Amino acid sequence: MDELLKILQANATESRENIAKMLNVSVAEVNRRVADYEQRGVIRGYQAILNEDELDLDTVTAVIEVKVTPQREGGFNTIAQRISRFPEVRSAYLMSGTYDLLLFIDGRNLREVAAFVSERLSPLEGVLSTSTHFMLKTYKRLGVLMESTHAEERLSVAP
Amino acid sequence: MQKKDSVSPRNRINATVRDIPRSGIRDFFDIVSTMKDIISLGIGEPDFDTPWHVRESTVFALERGVTHYTSNFGYLELRKALAGYVAKKFGAEYNPENEILITVGVSEALDLALRALVTPGDEVLYHEPCYVSYRATILFAHGVPVAVETKVENGFRLTRAMLEAKVTPKTKVLMLNFPNNPTGAVMARQDLEDIAAFAREHDLIVVTDEIYGELTYDAPHTSIVSLPGMRERTIFLHGFSKAWAMTGYRLGYACGPEELIEAMMKIHQYTMLCASSMGQKAAIEALARPDTDVGEMVNEYRRRRNFIAAALAEMGIECHRPLGAFYAFPSVAKFGLKSKEFALKFLHEEKVAAVPGTAFGECGEGFIRCAYATNMENLKEAMVRLKRFVGKLG
After folding, report:
1. Which of A13, B83, B133, B160 stands the most exposed, by the fewest C-beta atoms within 10 Å?
2. Distance, in angstroms, between B77 CA and closest chain A CA?
């Protein structure tokens, strides 16, 4: 993967000046490449990674395994895209194995998620069955550990 | 009759030990350790954690009861893995049975090599600025340290002419350390060919500390041991501290001709017995996928190297471009302060620790060592503070 993307993936707020220094290229070159990635849709957006457990949000996240019937012509894409459009769906993946789609659903409470599954998801044509799991605690998200990392173990000066 | 309490313990200390000054790094550490919230560019070890699979394998080794002595040479399984790694990465073949010795860090390996080679009065050539322990280790081995000063004009590389000026009939050993701590200098193949010819013509043993061998940023590392006629007169030293961020494991190794390794092993056997067993198991795991583990760290160091080189250039501080290890060695001579004064003032006024160049030899005067083995956020902030600091110095 392009070094530029690695830097942005690690820290999307890194300044263009610093990125230019790290890559030994001009700021204009960095701007041009970022714009190109954005325009091509390689970069789809920039988000903060939150430790939601710290926010006392009283919301729930459910992970739902969904079995579906692939559709003629559209295959899995048609049904998967239809499901993905619900704003409650935070992430959706096509999986190998015993089920087809894996969904991450955000809801205000258990009842709201239950309502989403029974009233919106299950009745969809092509959805055969669902299995819902509630997330209890986040330890790591997008490569970032949620527990604050340990203090510096190293000596302050070493040979 | 002499009273007992009039005898100073200091007089009982071996004269060699007594007369060796404390490491300049330690002096500086004593000052830094009294201060809080310091950004340290003074740490000569990786900020990365040891790869998790290596740490996990250490726990597993403990669970299995790997807590006993190993062979004096170290586990054969590890030596076999190292034979493969050294052949592939450094271009020299060694017999794992009797040409590889596992040691407690490269520091022990260096000590063993010098003690095995040096007869009191033998001269040992080494280049400065260099790692803080070289001179002391030569003295402890009763050798005569002969420093060869490398210059910024040469990119801190060693040249044959520099060595010819210092070699005598008493010279027995030539010590090398590239990529270099503290300068970040490397030696290209053609540079090493001159040095190899010099060593062959003067019939010297080369002790090469290549602990930073994986950490080069613009061109792959070349080891002197891979050059014609050098394997038989070279002791190659390497370890896991830098490339795998395993400093606390204290695990290094020496490769060399059987007779030399046997001589080193004799000292190791009587003084150390063996390197830590669980550390050796971890090292076996570390060698399972070096390219993945080390590759990503190298990329990150390269970004930091680029960043610090550009940041220094932007504020008008001259710095030879570091090509390896994780140190920048900028010149601060133009600000009219001695290295130590500069470092102390910088520390007190801006709370950034950088080590005075003189800790690495007198010819380090006029330079400071900035280790970029710290995360990018610290590095960015340190450069902001350095810019402000030198702005005030004018």
Report:
1. A13
2. 31
Query: What is the domain extent for residue B258?
Result: 52-288
Instruction: Examine the domain organization and report whether B166 and B269 are in the same domain.
Output: yes
- Non-local (6+) Cβ contacts of A131 within 8 A are A64, A65, A66, A99
Domains plus CATH for chain A? 3-40 (1.10.10), 52-136 (3.30.70.920)
CB-nearest partner of A157 from B42, B181, B311: B42
| B316 and B241 belong to one structural domain | no
- Our CA angle for B41, B42, B45, nearest 5°, is 100
Q: Tell me how far apart the alpha carbons of residues A63 and A11 are, in angstroms, rounded to a whole number.
A: 27
* CA angle (B145 as vertex; B142, B148 as ends), nearest 5: 165
> Bridge partners of B235?
B207
**Residue where a domain stops, chosen among B288, B307, B323:** B288
Residues 6 or more apart in contact with residue A139 via CB below 8 angstroms: A145, A146, A147
B288, B314, B335: which is the final residue of a domain?
B288
Q: For chain A, say whether B28 makes contact (Cβ under 8 Å).
A: yes
Of A21, A24, A158, the CB nearest to B45: A158
- CA nearest B46: which of B248, B201, B228, B203? B248
Which of B315, B374, B376, B379 is best to mutate for the A interface (most A CBs within 10 A)? Answer: B376
The predicted-structure confidence for B56-95, as pLDDT tens digits, reads as follows 999 999 999 999 999 999 999 999 999 999 999 999 999 9
Under 8 Å between Cβ of B86 and B226: no
The pLDDT score that the predictor gives to residue A150 is 66
Percent of chain A residues past pLDDT 70, beyond the cut:
99
Q: Which two tokens stand for residue A74?
A: 């559209």
- Do residue B29 and residue A21 have CB atoms under 8 angstroms apart? no
In angstroms, the separation between the Cα of residue B43 and the nearest Cα of chain A is 5
Q: Can you tell me the distance from the alpha carbon of B22 to that of A15, in angstroms, rounded to the nearest whole number?
A: 43
Q: How far apart are CA B54 and CA A56, in angstroms?
A: 36
Write the burial class of residue A91 (CB in 10 Å: 0-12 exposed, 13-18 middle, 19+ buried).
exposed
What pairs with residue A75 in β-bridges? Answer: A71
Q: Which residue has the tokens 């499901």?
A: A83
Q: What is the ipTM of this complex?
A: 0.71
What pTM did the predictor assign?
0.88
For residue A19, give the amino acid letter: I
Other CB atoms within 10 A of residue B176 CB: 23
CB A109 within 8 A of CB A59: yes
Contact B341, B28 (CB under 8 A): no
The strand pair at A89-94 and A101-107 is best described as: antiparallel
